[in-house]
Design a protein that fits this description.
The protein is α/β, with parallel strands linked by helices and 468 residues long. The protein is built from 13 helices and 24 strands. The structure holds flavin-adenine dinucleotide. The site of flavin-adenine dinucleotide has 36 residues, from strand 2, helix 2, helix 3 and helix 8.
Length: 468
Protein backbone atom coordinates (compact mmCIF):
# COMPACT_ATOMS: atom_id res chain seq x y z
CA UNK A 1 0.00 0.00 0.00
CA UNK A 2 1.40 3.38 -1.04
CA UNK A 3 0.64 6.47 1.03
CA UNK A 4 0.17 9.99 -0.32
CA UNK A 5 -0.82 13.38 1.06
CA UNK A 6 -3.23 13.82 -1.85
CA UNK A 7 -4.79 11.46 -4.39
CA UNK A 8 -6.76 12.99 -7.26
CA UNK A 9 -9.10 10.61 -9.10
CA UNK A 10 -9.49 11.67 -12.74
CA UNK A 11 -6.97 13.60 -14.84
CA UNK A 12 -9.14 16.03 -16.80
CA UNK A 13 -8.65 19.82 -16.57
CA UNK A 14 -10.06 19.67 -13.02
CA UNK A 15 -7.98 16.74 -11.79
CA UNK A 16 -4.60 17.37 -13.39
CA UNK A 17 -4.63 21.05 -12.42
CA UNK A 18 -5.55 20.09 -8.82
CA UNK A 19 -2.68 17.58 -8.79
CA UNK A 20 -0.18 20.18 -10.04
CA UNK A 21 -1.33 22.75 -7.48
CA UNK A 22 -1.17 20.19 -4.66
CA UNK A 23 2.35 19.18 -5.67
CA UNK A 24 3.44 22.84 -6.00
CA UNK A 25 2.35 23.32 -2.38
CA UNK A 26 4.56 20.47 -1.25
CA UNK A 27 1.99 17.65 -1.04
CA UNK A 28 3.10 14.15 -2.03
CA UNK A 29 0.50 13.77 -4.79
CA UNK A 30 -0.83 11.02 -7.06
CA UNK A 31 -3.37 11.24 -9.88
CA UNK A 32 -5.43 8.26 -11.06
CA UNK A 33 -6.57 8.03 -14.69
CA UNK A 34 -8.49 5.19 -16.29
CA UNK A 35 -8.31 6.31 -19.93
CA UNK A 36 -5.70 4.08 -21.64
CA UNK A 37 -5.20 6.87 -24.22
CA UNK A 38 -3.70 9.09 -21.51
CA UNK A 39 -4.25 12.18 -19.39
CA UNK A 40 -6.25 15.30 -20.22
CA UNK A 41 -9.86 14.16 -19.78
CA UNK A 42 -12.87 15.09 -21.88
CA UNK A 43 -11.55 18.58 -22.58
CA UNK A 44 -8.39 17.40 -24.31
CA UNK A 45 -9.52 14.08 -25.78
CA UNK A 46 -13.24 14.37 -26.61
CA UNK A 47 -14.22 17.99 -25.96
CA UNK A 48 -12.83 21.50 -26.16
CA UNK A 49 -9.64 20.81 -28.09
CA UNK A 50 -10.82 18.31 -30.75
CA UNK A 51 -14.05 20.28 -31.31
CA UNK A 52 -12.10 23.49 -31.89
CA UNK A 53 -9.80 21.68 -34.31
CA UNK A 54 -12.86 20.75 -36.39
CA UNK A 55 -14.12 24.33 -36.15
CA UNK A 56 -10.80 25.67 -37.40
CA UNK A 57 -10.96 23.50 -40.52
CA UNK A 58 -14.59 24.52 -41.14
CA UNK A 59 -13.61 28.18 -40.79
CA UNK A 60 -10.71 27.87 -43.24
CA UNK A 61 -12.86 25.87 -45.65
CA UNK A 62 -15.53 28.57 -45.66
CA UNK A 63 -12.95 31.30 -46.20
CA UNK A 64 -11.70 29.57 -49.36
CA UNK A 65 -15.04 30.33 -50.99
CA UNK A 66 -14.52 34.09 -50.72
CA UNK A 67 -10.91 34.36 -51.89
CA UNK A 68 -11.83 36.24 -55.07
CA UNK A 69 -13.92 38.75 -53.14
CA UNK A 70 -10.88 39.49 -50.96
CA UNK A 71 -8.70 40.08 -53.98
CA UNK A 72 -6.95 36.71 -54.14
CA UNK A 73 -7.03 35.43 -57.71
CA UNK A 74 -5.66 32.32 -59.39
CA UNK A 75 -6.73 29.72 -56.82
CA UNK A 76 -8.94 27.04 -58.36
CA UNK A 77 -11.35 25.82 -55.68
CA UNK A 78 -13.77 24.01 -57.99
CA UNK A 79 -12.65 20.55 -56.82
CA UNK A 80 -12.28 21.56 -53.19
CA UNK A 81 -13.78 19.05 -50.73
CA UNK A 82 -13.33 18.21 -47.05
CA UNK A 83 -10.72 15.52 -46.34
CA UNK A 84 -11.89 14.23 -42.98
CA UNK A 85 -9.23 11.53 -42.64
CA UNK A 86 -6.56 14.26 -42.68
CA UNK A 87 -8.65 16.48 -40.41
CA UNK A 88 -9.05 13.67 -37.84
CA UNK A 89 -5.34 12.80 -38.10
CA UNK A 90 -4.45 16.47 -37.43
CA UNK A 91 -6.88 16.53 -34.51
CA UNK A 92 -5.28 13.36 -33.08
CA UNK A 93 -1.82 14.87 -33.49
CA UNK A 94 -2.83 17.98 -31.53
CA UNK A 95 -4.42 15.82 -28.80
CA UNK A 96 -1.29 13.65 -28.63
CA UNK A 97 1.01 16.67 -28.39
CA UNK A 98 -1.04 18.32 -25.64
CA UNK A 99 -1.43 14.98 -23.84
CA UNK A 100 2.35 14.67 -23.74
CA UNK A 101 2.40 18.20 -22.33
CA UNK A 102 0.17 17.11 -19.43
CA UNK A 103 2.38 14.03 -18.84
CA UNK A 104 5.44 16.30 -18.79
CA UNK A 105 3.77 18.54 -16.20
CA UNK A 106 3.10 15.52 -13.98
CA UNK A 107 6.77 14.49 -14.16
CA UNK A 108 8.01 18.05 -13.64
CA UNK A 109 5.85 18.44 -10.53
CA UNK A 110 6.69 14.91 -9.29
CA UNK A 111 3.04 13.79 -9.38
CA UNK A 112 2.73 9.98 -9.39
CA UNK A 113 0.44 8.79 -12.19
CA UNK A 114 -1.56 5.67 -11.27
CA UNK A 115 -3.07 4.09 -14.39
CA UNK A 116 -6.44 2.38 -14.04
CA UNK A 117 -9.91 2.77 -12.59
CA UNK A 118 -9.92 4.46 -9.19
CA UNK A 119 -12.53 3.58 -6.59
CA UNK A 120 -13.13 5.24 -3.23
CA UNK A 121 -13.17 2.78 -0.35
CA UNK A 122 -13.94 5.36 2.36
CA UNK A 123 -11.63 6.34 5.23
CA UNK A 124 -9.02 7.92 2.94
CA UNK A 125 -8.45 4.83 0.81
CA UNK A 126 -8.55 4.51 -2.97
CA UNK A 127 -8.37 1.24 -4.85
CA UNK A 128 -6.70 1.26 -8.27
CA UNK A 129 -6.76 -1.99 -10.23
CA UNK A 130 -6.89 -4.13 -7.09
CA UNK A 131 -4.20 -2.17 -5.22
CA UNK A 132 -5.20 -0.02 -2.25
CA UNK A 133 -3.58 3.39 -1.74
CA UNK A 134 -3.95 5.73 1.21
CA UNK A 135 -4.23 9.51 1.23
CA UNK A 136 -4.72 12.25 3.81
CA UNK A 137 -6.86 14.11 1.26
CA UNK A 138 -8.70 12.93 -1.86
CA UNK A 139 -10.10 15.01 -4.73
CA UNK A 140 -12.70 13.31 -6.92
CA UNK A 141 -12.63 14.67 -10.49
CA UNK A 142 -14.19 11.91 -12.60
CA UNK A 143 -15.94 14.25 -15.05
CA UNK A 144 -18.84 13.37 -17.33
CA UNK A 145 -19.94 11.41 -20.40
CA UNK A 146 -22.49 12.25 -23.14
CA UNK A 147 -26.06 12.03 -21.84
CA UNK A 148 -28.16 9.33 -23.48
CA UNK A 149 -31.93 9.62 -23.96
CA UNK A 150 -34.21 6.56 -23.72
CA UNK A 151 -35.15 5.49 -27.26
CA UNK A 152 -32.50 7.76 -28.77
CA UNK A 153 -29.43 5.91 -27.48
CA UNK A 154 -26.37 6.47 -29.64
CA UNK A 155 -25.20 3.52 -31.75
CA UNK A 156 -22.19 5.09 -33.44
CA UNK A 157 -23.70 4.46 -36.89
CA UNK A 158 -26.75 6.64 -37.54
CA UNK A 159 -27.36 7.98 -34.03
CA UNK A 160 -24.24 9.69 -32.73
CA UNK A 161 -22.96 11.51 -29.69
CA UNK A 162 -20.18 14.11 -29.67
CA UNK A 163 -17.48 11.44 -29.12
CA UNK A 164 -18.53 9.67 -32.35
CA UNK A 165 -18.75 12.82 -34.43
CA UNK A 166 -15.20 13.88 -33.58
CA UNK A 167 -13.89 10.83 -35.45
CA UNK A 168 -16.38 10.66 -38.33
CA UNK A 169 -14.72 10.00 -41.70
CA UNK A 170 -17.47 11.24 -44.09
CA UNK A 171 -19.40 14.49 -44.02
CA UNK A 172 -23.00 13.63 -43.04
CA UNK A 173 -25.32 14.42 -45.90
CA UNK A 174 -28.10 15.63 -43.56
CA UNK A 175 -27.25 16.00 -39.89
CA UNK A 176 -30.20 16.34 -37.53
CA UNK A 177 -29.02 17.75 -34.21
CA UNK A 178 -31.07 17.38 -31.05
CA UNK A 179 -30.05 20.05 -28.54
CA UNK A 180 -28.88 23.57 -29.41
CA UNK A 181 -26.58 24.10 -26.43
CA UNK A 182 -22.89 24.84 -26.95
CA UNK A 183 -22.02 21.38 -28.28
CA UNK A 184 -25.03 21.20 -30.64
CA UNK A 185 -24.50 24.62 -32.23
CA UNK A 186 -20.73 24.13 -32.53
CA UNK A 187 -21.25 20.92 -34.53
CA UNK A 188 -24.03 22.61 -36.54
CA UNK A 189 -21.51 25.29 -37.40
CA UNK A 190 -18.82 22.77 -38.35
CA UNK A 191 -20.88 20.55 -40.61
CA UNK A 192 -23.00 23.25 -42.28
CA UNK A 193 -19.74 24.84 -43.48
CA UNK A 194 -18.37 21.48 -44.61
CA UNK A 195 -21.48 20.88 -46.72
CA UNK A 196 -24.05 19.06 -44.55
CA UNK A 197 -27.68 20.02 -44.52
CA UNK A 198 -28.52 20.83 -40.87
CA UNK A 199 -31.76 20.52 -38.92
CA UNK A 200 -31.36 21.88 -35.39
CA UNK A 201 -34.03 20.83 -32.89
CA UNK A 202 -34.27 22.54 -29.49
CA UNK A 203 -36.93 22.01 -26.85
CA UNK A 204 -36.43 25.40 -25.18
CA UNK A 205 -37.56 28.81 -26.51
CA UNK A 206 -34.23 29.80 -28.09
CA UNK A 207 -30.96 28.34 -29.34
CA UNK A 208 -28.14 28.37 -26.73
CA UNK A 209 -30.86 28.50 -24.06
CA UNK A 210 -28.44 29.03 -21.16
CA UNK A 211 -27.39 32.38 -22.61
CA UNK A 212 -29.24 35.71 -22.81
CA UNK A 213 -32.36 35.11 -24.93
CA UNK A 214 -31.50 37.91 -27.40
CA UNK A 215 -28.35 36.03 -28.41
CA UNK A 216 -30.21 32.80 -29.11
CA UNK A 217 -32.71 34.64 -31.30
CA UNK A 218 -29.91 36.37 -33.24
CA UNK A 219 -28.00 33.11 -33.67
CA UNK A 220 -31.07 31.40 -35.15
CA UNK A 221 -31.47 34.28 -37.63
CA UNK A 222 -27.82 34.12 -38.72
CA UNK A 223 -27.83 30.30 -38.90
CA UNK A 224 -30.93 30.38 -41.11
CA UNK A 225 -29.81 33.30 -43.29
CA UNK A 226 -26.14 32.48 -43.76
CA UNK A 227 -26.07 28.70 -43.50
CA UNK A 228 -29.64 27.83 -44.52
CA UNK A 229 -30.08 25.76 -41.37
CA UNK A 230 -33.55 24.58 -40.40
CA UNK A 231 -33.73 25.73 -36.75
CA UNK A 232 -36.74 24.45 -34.80
CA UNK A 233 -37.11 25.76 -31.24
CA UNK A 234 -39.85 24.67 -28.80
CA UNK A 235 -39.68 21.34 -30.60
CA UNK A 236 -38.51 17.89 -29.56
CA UNK A 237 -37.82 14.54 -31.17
CA UNK A 238 -40.52 12.21 -29.87
CA UNK A 239 -39.20 9.05 -31.52
CA UNK A 240 -36.90 7.80 -34.24
CA UNK A 241 -36.72 4.93 -36.70
CA UNK A 242 -33.21 3.65 -37.33
CA UNK A 243 -32.77 2.48 -40.91
CA UNK A 244 -29.71 1.17 -42.75
CA UNK A 245 -28.96 4.44 -44.56
CA UNK A 246 -30.90 7.03 -42.56
CA UNK A 247 -32.64 7.91 -39.32
CA UNK A 248 -36.26 9.03 -39.46
CA UNK A 249 -37.05 11.58 -36.74
CA UNK A 250 -40.59 12.30 -35.56
CA UNK A 251 -40.76 15.86 -34.27
CA UNK A 252 -43.35 17.30 -31.91
CA UNK A 253 -43.92 20.87 -30.75
CA UNK A 254 -43.92 24.26 -32.47
CA UNK A 255 -42.40 22.88 -35.70
CA UNK A 256 -43.54 19.25 -35.87
CA UNK A 257 -43.07 16.83 -38.74
CA UNK A 258 -40.96 13.99 -39.99
CA UNK A 259 -37.34 14.73 -40.78
CA UNK A 260 -35.13 12.12 -42.43
CA UNK A 261 -31.49 12.65 -41.63
CA UNK A 262 -28.48 10.67 -42.72
CA UNK A 263 -27.36 10.99 -39.08
CA UNK A 264 -28.75 12.21 -35.77
CA UNK A 265 -26.49 13.88 -33.22
CA UNK A 266 -27.91 13.71 -29.70
CA UNK A 267 -26.40 16.69 -27.87
CA UNK A 268 -28.63 17.03 -24.83
CA UNK A 269 -25.97 17.55 -22.21
CA UNK A 270 -23.69 15.37 -20.13
CA UNK A 271 -24.08 12.84 -17.32
CA UNK A 272 -21.75 13.25 -14.32
CA UNK A 273 -19.64 10.15 -13.59
CA UNK A 274 -20.61 9.67 -9.97
CA UNK A 275 -21.80 6.08 -9.98
CA UNK A 276 -19.36 3.20 -9.72
CA UNK A 277 -16.66 5.40 -8.17
CA UNK A 278 -17.29 4.25 -4.59
CA UNK A 279 -19.17 7.30 -3.30
CA UNK A 280 -21.56 4.96 -1.48
CA UNK A 281 -18.65 3.97 0.77
CA UNK A 282 -18.40 7.61 1.94
CA UNK A 283 -20.62 10.21 3.64
CA UNK A 284 -20.60 12.40 0.51
CA UNK A 285 -24.10 13.44 -0.54
CA UNK A 286 -25.10 12.91 -4.18
CA UNK A 287 -28.06 14.99 -5.37
CA UNK A 288 -29.55 14.17 -8.80
CA UNK A 289 -26.23 12.72 -9.94
CA UNK A 290 -24.01 15.55 -8.67
CA UNK A 291 -21.83 15.56 -5.57
CA UNK A 292 -22.84 18.23 -3.06
CA UNK A 293 -19.93 20.49 -2.04
CA UNK A 294 -19.31 23.67 -0.06
CA UNK A 295 -17.44 26.76 -1.29
CA UNK A 296 -14.08 25.00 -0.82
CA UNK A 297 -15.31 21.95 -2.78
CA UNK A 298 -15.52 19.81 0.40
CA UNK A 299 -18.04 16.95 0.37
CA UNK A 300 -19.87 15.47 3.36
CA UNK A 301 -17.04 12.92 3.74
CA UNK A 302 -14.17 14.34 5.79
CA UNK A 303 -11.08 15.01 3.62
CA UNK A 304 -12.90 14.25 0.35
CA UNK A 305 -13.36 17.01 -2.24
CA UNK A 306 -15.27 16.96 -5.54
CA UNK A 307 -14.72 19.26 -8.51
CA UNK A 308 -15.54 19.83 -12.19
CA UNK A 309 -18.33 18.16 -14.12
CA UNK A 310 -19.45 16.07 -11.12
CA UNK A 311 -20.60 19.12 -9.13
CA UNK A 312 -23.56 21.35 -9.96
CA UNK A 313 -21.62 24.36 -11.22
CA UNK A 314 -21.17 25.37 -14.89
CA UNK A 315 -19.59 22.43 -16.72
CA UNK A 316 -16.66 24.17 -18.32
CA UNK A 317 -12.97 23.32 -18.38
CA UNK A 318 -11.83 26.59 -16.79
CA UNK A 319 -14.38 26.17 -13.99
CA UNK A 320 -13.12 22.62 -13.32
CA UNK A 321 -9.51 23.88 -13.18
CA UNK A 322 -10.30 26.75 -10.82
CA UNK A 323 -12.28 24.40 -8.59
CA UNK A 324 -9.28 22.05 -8.63
CA UNK A 325 -7.04 24.87 -7.42
CA UNK A 326 -9.47 25.79 -4.62
CA UNK A 327 -9.72 22.13 -3.47
CA UNK A 328 -5.96 21.52 -3.63
CA UNK A 329 -5.20 24.75 -1.76
CA UNK A 330 -7.80 24.00 0.91
CA UNK A 331 -6.39 20.48 1.31
CA UNK A 332 -2.86 21.88 1.61
CA UNK A 333 -3.92 24.54 4.11
CA UNK A 334 -5.54 21.95 6.33
CA UNK A 335 -2.29 19.96 6.16
CA UNK A 336 -0.43 22.98 7.53
CA UNK A 337 0.76 24.71 4.34
CA UNK A 338 0.79 28.52 4.20
CA UNK A 339 -1.82 29.14 1.49
CA UNK A 340 -5.07 31.09 1.35
CA UNK A 341 -7.66 29.46 -0.92
CA UNK A 342 -10.20 31.75 -2.60
CA UNK A 343 -13.59 30.20 -3.41
CA UNK A 344 -14.57 30.39 -7.08
CA UNK A 345 -16.67 33.48 -7.87
CA UNK A 346 -19.52 31.88 -9.83
CA UNK A 347 -21.02 35.29 -10.68
CA UNK A 348 -18.15 36.03 -13.05
CA UNK A 349 -17.73 32.88 -15.12
CA UNK A 350 -17.11 33.53 -18.80
CA UNK A 351 -18.84 31.08 -21.12
CA UNK A 352 -17.90 30.79 -24.77
CA UNK A 353 -19.51 29.02 -27.70
CA UNK A 354 -17.26 28.69 -30.71
CA UNK A 355 -19.92 28.46 -33.39
CA UNK A 356 -19.99 30.95 -36.26
CA UNK A 357 -20.84 33.65 -35.26
CA UNK A 358 -19.12 33.15 -31.92
CA UNK A 359 -20.84 33.75 -28.60
CA UNK A 360 -19.18 35.00 -25.43
CA UNK A 361 -20.93 35.88 -22.18
CA UNK A 362 -20.10 36.80 -18.62
CA UNK A 363 -22.34 37.71 -15.70
CA UNK A 364 -26.11 37.85 -15.47
CA UNK A 365 -28.46 37.63 -18.44
CA UNK A 366 -31.21 40.24 -18.57
CA UNK A 367 -33.73 37.62 -17.36
CA UNK A 368 -31.48 36.49 -14.49
CA UNK A 369 -30.91 40.07 -13.34
CA UNK A 370 -34.65 40.74 -13.37
CA UNK A 371 -35.35 37.47 -11.55
CA UNK A 372 -32.94 38.66 -8.83
CA UNK A 373 -35.12 41.75 -8.38
CA UNK A 374 -32.64 44.15 -10.00
CA UNK A 375 -33.91 47.32 -11.65
CA UNK A 376 -32.30 46.58 -15.00
CA UNK A 377 -31.24 48.79 -17.87
CA UNK A 378 -29.69 47.40 -21.07
CA UNK A 379 -27.93 48.63 -24.16
CA UNK A 380 -26.82 46.81 -27.29
CA UNK A 381 -24.61 47.84 -30.18
CA UNK A 382 -24.47 45.95 -33.48
CA UNK A 383 -21.14 45.10 -35.12
CA UNK A 384 -22.50 46.08 -38.52
CA UNK A 385 -21.44 49.79 -38.48
CA UNK A 386 -17.96 49.02 -37.12
CA UNK A 387 -15.26 49.29 -39.80
CA UNK A 388 -13.27 46.39 -38.34
CA UNK A 389 -16.26 44.04 -38.49
CA UNK A 390 -16.63 44.87 -42.18
CA UNK A 391 -12.90 44.45 -42.81
CA UNK A 392 -12.93 40.93 -41.29
CA UNK A 393 -16.11 40.17 -43.25
CA UNK A 394 -18.36 39.54 -40.25
CA UNK A 395 -20.65 42.56 -39.87
CA UNK A 396 -23.26 40.71 -37.84
CA UNK A 397 -24.28 40.20 -34.22
CA UNK A 398 -24.06 42.67 -31.34
CA UNK A 399 -22.68 43.40 -27.90
CA UNK A 400 -25.24 43.76 -25.13
CA UNK A 401 -24.69 45.22 -21.66
CA UNK A 402 -26.99 44.44 -18.74
CA UNK A 403 -26.63 47.03 -15.97
CA UNK A 404 -28.16 48.14 -12.72
CA UNK A 405 -30.31 51.22 -13.40
CA UNK A 406 -29.61 53.10 -10.20
CA UNK A 407 -25.82 52.88 -10.00
CA UNK A 408 -24.91 51.84 -13.53
CA UNK A 409 -23.07 48.75 -12.23
CA UNK A 410 -22.31 46.34 -15.08
CA UNK A 411 -24.06 43.06 -14.29
CA UNK A 412 -23.55 41.16 -17.53
CA UNK A 413 -21.93 41.38 -20.96
CA UNK A 414 -23.25 39.24 -23.81
CA UNK A 415 -21.65 39.15 -27.22
CA UNK A 416 -22.58 37.43 -30.46
CA UNK A 417 -20.40 38.24 -33.43
CA UNK A 418 -16.81 38.27 -34.69
CA UNK A 419 -14.18 37.14 -32.16
CA UNK A 420 -16.81 37.19 -29.37
CA UNK A 421 -14.85 34.56 -27.43
CA UNK A 422 -11.75 36.77 -27.36
CA UNK A 423 -13.72 39.96 -26.66
CA UNK A 424 -15.47 38.43 -23.66
CA UNK A 425 -12.19 37.29 -22.13
CA UNK A 426 -10.99 40.87 -21.87
CA UNK A 427 -14.29 42.07 -20.39
CA UNK A 428 -14.41 39.73 -17.37
CA UNK A 429 -12.63 42.38 -15.29
CA UNK A 430 -15.43 44.90 -16.01
CA UNK A 431 -17.77 43.01 -13.70
CA UNK A 432 -17.82 43.09 -9.95
CA UNK A 433 -19.06 46.55 -9.09
CA UNK A 434 -15.84 48.52 -9.53
CA UNK A 435 -16.72 49.55 -13.08
CA UNK A 436 -19.86 51.37 -14.16
CA UNK A 437 -21.48 51.97 -17.55
CA UNK A 438 -20.48 55.65 -17.32
CA UNK A 439 -16.83 54.69 -16.72
CA UNK A 440 -16.93 52.35 -19.72
CA UNK A 441 -18.24 55.24 -21.83
CA UNK A 442 -15.20 57.28 -20.78
CA UNK A 443 -12.73 54.48 -21.49
CA UNK A 444 -10.87 54.94 -24.76
CA UNK A 445 -10.72 51.96 -27.14
CA UNK A 446 -8.45 51.92 -30.21
CA UNK A 447 -9.76 52.37 -33.75
CA UNK A 448 -10.37 50.33 -35.84
CA UNK A 449 -11.08 47.39 -33.54
CA UNK A 450 -14.02 45.17 -32.68
CA UNK A 451 -13.56 46.42 -29.10
CA UNK A 452 -15.12 49.73 -30.12
CA UNK A 453 -18.42 47.96 -29.51
CA UNK A 454 -17.81 48.22 -25.73
CA UNK A 455 -18.10 52.02 -25.25
CA UNK A 456 -20.79 52.13 -27.96
CA UNK A 457 -22.93 49.53 -26.16
CA UNK A 458 -22.32 51.46 -22.92
CA UNK A 459 -23.54 54.65 -24.63
CA UNK A 460 -26.52 52.72 -25.98
CA UNK A 461 -27.52 51.94 -22.38
CA UNK A 462 -28.30 55.68 -22.07
CA UNK A 463 -29.49 56.11 -25.67
CA UNK A 464 -26.35 57.97 -26.81
CA UNK A 465 -24.56 55.53 -29.17
CA UNK A 466 -22.57 57.52 -31.74
CA UNK A 467 -22.56 55.14 -34.71
CA UNK A 468 -26.16 54.04 -34.62
P1 LIG B 1 -13.22 15.41 -17.50
O1 LIG B 1 -12.54 16.31 -18.42
O2 LIG B 1 -14.38 14.64 -17.99
O3 LIG B 1 -12.11 14.42 -16.94
C1 LIG B 1 -12.42 13.38 -16.08
C2 LIG B 1 -11.33 12.33 -16.17
O4 LIG B 1 -11.54 11.37 -15.16
C3 LIG B 1 -11.36 11.57 -17.50
O5 LIG B 1 -10.08 11.55 -18.05
C4 LIG B 1 -11.83 10.17 -17.12
O6 LIG B 1 -11.26 9.16 -17.91
C5 LIG B 1 -11.30 10.06 -15.68
N1 LIG B 1 -12.04 9.12 -14.85
C6 LIG B 1 -13.38 8.99 -14.72
N2 LIG B 1 -13.66 8.05 -13.81
C7 LIG B 1 -12.48 7.57 -13.36
C8 LIG B 1 -12.12 6.59 -12.40
N3 LIG B 1 -13.05 5.91 -11.71
N4 LIG B 1 -10.84 6.35 -12.22
C9 LIG B 1 -9.87 7.02 -12.91
N5 LIG B 1 -10.15 7.97 -13.81
C10 LIG B 1 -11.44 8.25 -14.02
N6 LIG B 1 -15.52 23.39 -21.90
C11 LIG B 1 -14.97 24.60 -22.07
O7 LIG B 1 -14.65 25.27 -21.08
N7 LIG B 1 -14.75 25.11 -23.32
C12 LIG B 1 -15.08 24.43 -24.44
O8 LIG B 1 -14.86 24.93 -25.54
C13 LIG B 1 -15.66 23.14 -24.30
N8 LIG B 1 -15.98 22.42 -25.39
C14 LIG B 1 -16.48 21.16 -25.24
C15 LIG B 1 -16.80 20.44 -26.38
C16 LIG B 1 -17.32 19.17 -26.27
C17 LIG B 1 -17.64 18.39 -27.52
C18 LIG B 1 -17.50 18.60 -24.97
C19 LIG B 1 -18.03 17.19 -24.82
C20 LIG B 1 -17.19 19.32 -23.82
C21 LIG B 1 -16.70 20.62 -23.94
N9 LIG B 1 -16.39 21.38 -22.82
C22 LIG B 1 -15.86 22.64 -22.98
C23 LIG B 1 -16.63 20.88 -21.44
C24 LIG B 1 -15.32 20.41 -20.80
O9 LIG B 1 -14.72 19.44 -21.63
C25 LIG B 1 -15.61 19.83 -19.42
O10 LIG B 1 -16.33 20.77 -18.65
C26 LIG B 1 -14.32 19.49 -18.69
O11 LIG B 1 -13.55 18.56 -19.41
C27 LIG B 1 -14.62 18.93 -17.30
O12 LIG B 1 -13.41 18.64 -16.67
P2 LIG B 1 -13.32 17.55 -15.52
O13 LIG B 1 -11.88 17.53 -15.10
O14 LIG B 1 -14.34 17.80 -14.49
O15 LIG B 1 -13.72 16.16 -16.20
Amino acid sequence: MASFDLIVVGAGPGGYVAAIRGAQLGLNTAVVEKDPAGLGGTCLRRGCIPAKTWLETAHRYEQMASLKEYGIAGVDTTNMKPDLATLVARKNKIVLKNGKGVEFLMKKNKVTVLKGVGKLLGGGKVEVEGEVHEAKKIILATGSVPRELPGLESDGKRVLNSDHLLDIQDVPQHLVILGAGAIGVEFASVFSRLGSKITLVEMMDTLIPLEDADLGVELAKIFARTYKMDCRVKTKIASIERQEDKVVCHLEGEKPGIVEGSHLLVAVGRTPLTSGVGLEATKAVVDRGCVVVDEFMQTGEPDLYAIGDIVRTPWLAHVASDEGIVAAEHAAKSLGKDVHPHPVNYDRIPSCTYCDPEVGCVGMTEAQAKAKGKDVITGAFPFMPLAKANIVGEPHGFLKIVADKQYGEILGIHIIGPKATELIASSVALLGGEYTVEELIHTMYPHPTLNEAFPEAARAVYGRALNM
